[in-house]
Design a protein that fits this description.
The chain is an all-alpha fold. 66% of the residues lie in helices and 0% in strands. Helix 3 packs across helix 5 and helix 4 runs antiparallel to helix 6. The longest helix is centred in the C-terminal third of the chain and has 23 residues.
C-alpha cells in the first residue's frame, strides 16, 4: 500500500517552534537558521524565505512570547475591585515566570535583536507595550485615567514590575536554596512581597 505523504509543514511557524526548542535544549547562543533548518529536515536556505537573518527569527520568537505573556495576564479571573485585581495580576505574573522559565528569560534576560536601522522590531515593541499596559490598566483604576495621572501610573507600574521581576528572578536562582531561611519563609515570600507592594501603593495614594 503506498505510503501517504506527510502534510506540508507551515515553515514560518515551524521555524519559531523549533527555535524555541533549540534554545531550551542548547541555549540561545546555539540558535542559527542553519541549525533550525537541519532539525526541521529542510534545506539550509529554506528558513531564509521567512527570516532573512537569525535576528529576524529571534525577534519573532520574543514577540510571540510577549503575546503569550500578555494573554496569560489578561486571562486572570475578573475582579471588580481594583485592589483585588492588582493582587490577581501579581499572582498571574509570578505564576507565568514559574511555569514558563524559558520564555520568561527570553522576555527579560535576553538582549533584543536590532533591526537594520538599529531600532527594535516594531511588532516586538508593540507586544511588549501590550504586556505592560495590562498593569497600567489596573493602576488607572486606582489613580484615574486622565493625562495628569499618566506619570504616576507609569512610575507605580515600574515599581511594581521591578518588585515582581526581582522576586521571580530570585525564586528561580540557585542561591534561594542556600539562604538558610526560616522554615516557613519560602512559602510566605510571595504573599509578603505582594502585601508590601499593596501597603506602599495605598500609602502613596492616600497622600
Amino acid at each position: 500500500m503506498p505510503r501517504t505523504p506527510a502534510p506540508p509543514i507551515d515553515l514560518k511557524d515551524a521555524c519559531v517552534q523549533e527555535a524555541r526548542a533549540l534554545i531550551a535544549e542548547q541555549g540561545l547562543e546555539r540558535l542559527s537558521l542553519r541549525e533550525v533548518a537541519r532539525r526541521l529536515g529542510v534545506s539550509h536556505q529554506a528558513p531564509y524565505k521567512h527570516y532573512p537573518s537569525r535576528d529576524h527569527l529571534l525577534a519573532e520568537l520574543i514577540r510571540r512570547c510577549f503575546g503569550e505573556f500578555a494573554a496569560f495576564l489578561d486571562d486572570r479571573p475578573p475582579e471588580p475591585e481594583p485592589w483585588a485585581d492588582l493582587a490577581a495580576l501579581g499572582e498571574r505574573y509570578l505564576r507565568y515566570a514559574a511555569e514558563h522559565p524559558l520564555e520568561y528569560r527570553l522576555l527579560f534576560g535576553a538582549p533584543w535583536p536590532q533591526a537594520e536601522d538599529g531600532q527594535a522590531w516594531p511588532g516586538l515593541v508593540a507586544d511588549a507595550v501590550h504586556a505592560f499596559d495590562v498593569l497600567r490598566g489596573v493602576l488607572r483604576r486606582l489613580h484615574g485615567a486622565g493625562a495628569a495621572q499618566r506619570a504616576a501610573v507609569d512610575l507605580d507600574a515600574m515599581a511594581i514590575w521591578s518588585a515582581l521581576h526581582g522576586l521571580a528572578t530570585l525564586t528561580q536562582a540557585d542561591v534561594m536554596g542556600h539562604l538558610r531561611l526560616a522554615p516557613r519563609v519560602p512559602g510566605q515570600v510571595q504573599g509578603h512581597v505582594m502585601a508590601m507592594v499593596g501597603h506602599a501603593l495605598r500609602a502613596r495614594l492616600s497622600r
